[in-house]
Amino acid sequence: MKWSRYSKLFKSQKNGWLLYNSASNAFLTLEEKAVSVIQEIIKSPKTYDFSNAVNLYFQLRISGFLVEDTKDNDLFNILKMRRLLVGYATDTLTLTIAPTRKCNFACPYCYETNRTKSMMNDETIENLLKFIKMHKQARRVFFVWYGGEPLLAYKKIKQINAKIEELKIPYSAKMITNGYCLTSEICEELNDLHISDIQITIDGDRKTHNSRRFLIGGGKTFDRIINNIDTLLRSNYKGILHLRVNIDTRNSKQFANVYRFIQSKYDDETLKRIYIYPGFVHGKETTPDIACFFDYVKKGEFIAKLAKEEKISPLPIFPQSKYTACTLVQHNSYVVGPDGELYKCWHDVGEKDKVIGNIAFKNWNMALIAEGMISGNYLEDKKCEKCFFFPVCDGGCPKLRMLNNRDKKRRDHCSYFKNNLEELLEIYYEQKRDKSTVKS
Hints:
Elements: E1 2-3, E2 7-12, E3 16-21, E4 26-30, H1 32-43, H2 54-62, E5 66-67, H3 71-87, E6 92-97, H4 122-134, E7 140-145, H5 154-165, E8 171-177, H6 184-189, E9 195-202, H7 206-212, H8 222-234, E10 240-247, H9 254-265, H10 268-271, E11 274-280, H11 296-308, E12 333-336, E13 341-343, E14 357-358, H12 366-375, H13 382-385, H14 398-407, H15 421-439
Helix pairs in contact: 11-15, 12-14
């Protein structure tokens, strides 16, 4: 019997002693008299006499704080197995499709530089259908409409959707759009396109947004996007709106402004369909003003401040186990460009040296595919294997990890919980306590 390496005991100045386990996600509050007992157990779990603390023993065992000698290593292997199964699964085919790389915006921080006007043609669409049919083990398909700006190719999206429906394969879709071209006609057709999730980005209030997300040539975009969001939410669209607020250190105060603006604008029923979250802008490695971007420590501090000082909820302040996989490390996942070229990262669209193949099944760059699948995978990282956060971390950005392994630099890819766990858990505890008090 031993004390799990995934257990953490700490004292909150305001809330007393708290105990958390990242493997089970158990989170307990402790009476002062129990703390000295637990501290003795931590020092010597094998020899501690539990005869006078039977209930505590069972609580610690059930919650995963006390485990068998091999349990932590067993758990690591089990989690690794599950995540490998997700990464190499063939029952789902995930395609992020950019029917065009053209965009009507000129955001200065955008990582996409190759903005050609190319549009997916009929031959490429037919090859796309053949590509889907070749994945015979896939029982369902998930699409992400991407760009450039996908709504500049809306007719192509409808054309592709009609062709896919003929295949009689279960599928669903998401769209990532700047929202500028989201007309009432398009809103009314989103359900028919199987789009259950649409992401729109704004960068702050009217003045801040218009200084950062402007049209090519400098035109303002804020009012039109907000009007289009109104149209979307009044339409027959049944899905969720993910409202991403792009944040860096220059506009960090704007998230709270946008959150309150949206909260005041819509009724409670409508707000259930809107999820507002911060999108941390990373920019390009060549960006001279690199100090304006958040590292993982600052991300955690920012989220804690939103929850504690701005009283914004819900926010991702409690760790959760993850079994998703990024396109780079997922076998059956691809990014499709308008010419049928394939990539393994959204950020690579338009970069010729990042192309890993073509939907016409030619020119496969197996070395590049393998580098992403292996070198970008945190399951091969010995530091991650011993990390307290492993059960609730997906390893961060696989692309950054792959690049670090390639050139031995130290790009940031750790979870923001790593340096901010205690504060975020305190906030979570207080939120749960306050809700419980209100109900009673």
